[in-house]
Design a protein that fits this description.
Elements: H1 2-7, H2 14-34, H3 47-58, H4 60-78, H5 87-149, H6 154-176, E1 182-183, H7 184-192, E2 200-203, E3 208-209, H8 211-230, E4 240-248, E5 251-259, H9 272-279, E6 287-292, E7 297-304
Helix pairs in contact: 2-3, 2-4, 3-4, 3-5, 4-5, 5-6, 6-7, 6-8, 7-8
């Protein structure tokens, strides 16, 4: 509560009026200091920022209060022979009133807009957090059902549950970024964390993927990592994995390169993983190309980011 008070008191509160008075006093001191330069200075110039800040802090009424207070001080302290009006002084007062009216109107509208946007942002965050909480509960329930129904088929059960865990971990990354997506580095680090990271190198720029593409990439990485652990570079103590990516215009390219593992060859049949690799990026105008080199698997993935 103290931090919020320091940033912006509520409109029309006692704190906002006190802060507005402090702005006017500061403006008066600044105006008074200009008198030592020996050059005539307009009496109300330094009060304009005070009126602007006071309105932004406390609303239109506080802005009017600061304008009146500043006008009275400026008239009394910085307008010689203030008892008598002249055409020049009347014009200065008129310009001050008009300028303050414009500042108060603009600052108050900006304040209201900022408050409305902040409320909408708070509501959006609350909705996202609630949906995320419900989604986690549903995923946990689905995992329990799958584990029970496939209790006689542990291999299939573990594969399905592992894929769901991969999606859940990426959901956490997307939620942490307030729905904007997830970075490639964070996705790779999360998916490869269970393995020996000292044997894995990641190289590429900070690239944020949109939510829909961020949910597909973990599935691809999970399939590649699973195969690498079972048959590829990560199945051998000397094996290494290198992942690099680049971004050119709106096209992102990712290369998965295994080395130092056992000799690999093309799979004899197409399972779910093979079909996933071949078609997962079609919706993003992308492609996945796998090459079974003697030294290890090389997989190149490409996708086009939305505007």
């Amino acid at each position: 509560m103290v931090a919020n008070w320091r940033i912006r008191p509520s409109a029309g509160s006692t704190q906002s009026y006190l802060l507005a008075a402090a702005f006017v006093v500061l403006a008066s001191l600044v105006r008074w200091s200009f008198g030592f330069f020996g050059t005539p200075f307009l009496p109300f110039t330094t009060y304009y920022p005070a009126v602007l800040f006071a309105t932004y802090v406390g609303g239109s009424r506080v802005g009017i209060f600061s304008a009146i207070l500043g006008g009275l001080i400026g008239w009394w302290a910085f307008m010689p022979e203030y008892f008598f009006f002249t055409r020049g002084r009347e014009l200065e007062l008129l310009m001050y009133v008009l300028a303050c009216g414009f500042l108060i109107w603009g600052a108050d509208n900006y304040r209201r807009l900022a408050e409305r946007l902040q409320k909408e942002e708070d509501l959006r965050k609350l909705v996202v957090e609630e949906l995320a909480h419900r989604l986690k509960n549903k995923i946990a329930t689905i995992q329990s059902i799958i584990s029970y129904q496939l209790r006689e088929q542990p291999s299939l059960r573990d594969d399905i549950v592992a894929r769901m865990v991969a999606l859940s971990a990426t959901d956490d990354l997307i939620i942490a970024s307030h729905g904007r997506g997830a970075s490639i580095r964070d996705i790779l680090s999360t998916e490869l964390r269970p393995y020996e990271l000292s044997r894995i190198s990641l190289d590429g720029p900070d690239t944020l993927l949109p939510p829909n593409l961020a949910l597909v990439l973990p599935l691809l990485v999970h399939e590649l990592a699973t195969n690498a652990v079972k048959h590829g570079a990560l199945s051998s103590p000397a094996g290494k994995l290198s992942i690099c990516w680049s971004l050119l215009n709106r096209s992102v390219s990712i290369e998965w390169r295994e080395s130092g593992g056992p000799t690999v060859g093309s799979p004899s049949h197409r399972g779910f993983g093979s079909r996933l690799l071949s078609s997962a990026l079609d919706q993003f105008s992308g492609s996945v190309e796998t090459t079974f080199e003697k030294d290890g698997l090389i997989c190149r993935m490409k996708a086009v980011l939305p505007d």
